[in-house]
Each structure stands twice: as structure tokens, then as C-alpha cells.
Write a structure and sequence with these properties.
Elements lengths: L1 H5 L2 H8 L1 H8 L9 H27 L4 H26 L7 H32 L4 H24 L13
Helix pairs in contact: 4-5, 6-7
Length: about 170
């Protein structure tokens, strides 16, 4: 699957762009602009589409004022479930679909997403609602922090690769 994505028309097109080529071949930036980061960003865009799609789909069925909250909750749940699956499969290549593995990964994944949701909500409330700072800029800043926090939580905690012990060191 990974090779299929790397050989896709979009990735080939992206790779043909000078800026991307420079970034991916740069000794410092090349470590960041790799398959994992690109797939994380693409999966994030797809997750955003799922969230927006579900939000407006639910809004069509719940037109009353409370429909906004219902739509927000359902779209967030759908987005988190979708994000877990695509991150597991496409970004972090995490094997195992047994119950134990799913619980070991999904509970921390959900916890990280709840914490980032709380941070996002509090940050925007304080910076925009209380301090009256620039709303689009504060929302963008909050989204960048959430994106980075979720990526590092997924990479180093949730989907981290287990250390393998060389055969000669095993008893």
C-alpha cells in the first residue's frame, strides 16, 4: 500500500515541484518531508473532509439550534474514528487488529485527541473570546499546535514501534 501511495499521480506531481524536491533533498528538511509526514498531512486533510462532511450531513437532518451541537459531536467522533484507522494503516503502518492491540492503541489515541480538543477550545476561547486577539490567526496557531501534538503523540506513544532484541541477545 505504501508503494502504491508513493507511486500515485499526486505524489509524483508533488515530487516534481522544485520546492518539494529541494525540501525532500535538503539535509535538515529531508528528514521531515518523508513518506510518514506527507501521509500524515494527506490523512489529516481526508479527516478534515470527513469531519466537514459529517457536520453538514447531520445539520441537514437536525435543523434546530441544538442541531449545531449534535452535528459537532457526531462529526468529531466520525473524524476521530477515521483518523485512527488511516493513521494506523497508512501513516504509522501499525500491524495487529486484535482486541488487545486496538485497546492499547485506541485508548491513548482517543485520550490524545480529547486533550488536543480541550487545548484547542480553551486556547481559542481565551485568545479570541477573552483577549480579543485576531481570530483567524489564533485558530491557525491553535491548529498548528494541535497538529504537532497529535503527530508526536501518535508517533512516539500510540503507534511507536516496539524495540526488537537481536537474536544473539535473546536467552
Amino acid at each position: 500500500m505504501k508503494n502504491k501511495i508513493l507511486e500515485s499521480a499526486f505524489v509524483r506531481w508533488l515530487g516534481s515541484r522544485r520546492l518539494f524536491a529541494w525540501l525532500s533533498n535538503h539535509r535538515l528538511f529531508g528528514k521531515v518531508f518523508n513518506y510518514e509526514m506527507i501521509s500524515y498531512i494527506l490523512c489529516g486533510l481526508a479527516t478534515t473532509a470527513v469531519s466537514y462532511g459529517m457536520y453538514f450531513l447531520v445539520r441537514i437532518f437536525f435543523r434546530a439550534d441544538y442541531g449545531i451541537l449534535v452535528a459537532q459531536v457526531i462529526s468529531w467522533i466520525a473524524a476521530v474514528l477515521f483518523a485512527y484507522v488511516v493513521n494506523k494503516i497508512f501513516v504509522f503502518d501499525s500491524p495487529g487488529w486484535d482486541r488487545k492491540t486496538l485497546l492499547r492503541e485506541f485508548i491513548p489515541f482517543l485520550t490524545a485527541r480529547l486533550l488536543s480538543f480541550g487545548f484547542d477550545t480553551l486556547f481559542v476561547y481565551l485568545t479570541v473570546g477573552v483577549f480579543r486577539w485576531n481570530e483567524p490567526l489564533m485558530k491557525l496557531l491553535s491548529n498548528i499546535v494541535v497538529l504537532l501534538a497529535n503527530y508526536f503523540a501518535s508517533k512516539f506513544i500510540i503507534f511507536r514501534k516496539k524495540e526488537t532484541v537481536p537474536e544473539e541477545d535473546q536467552p
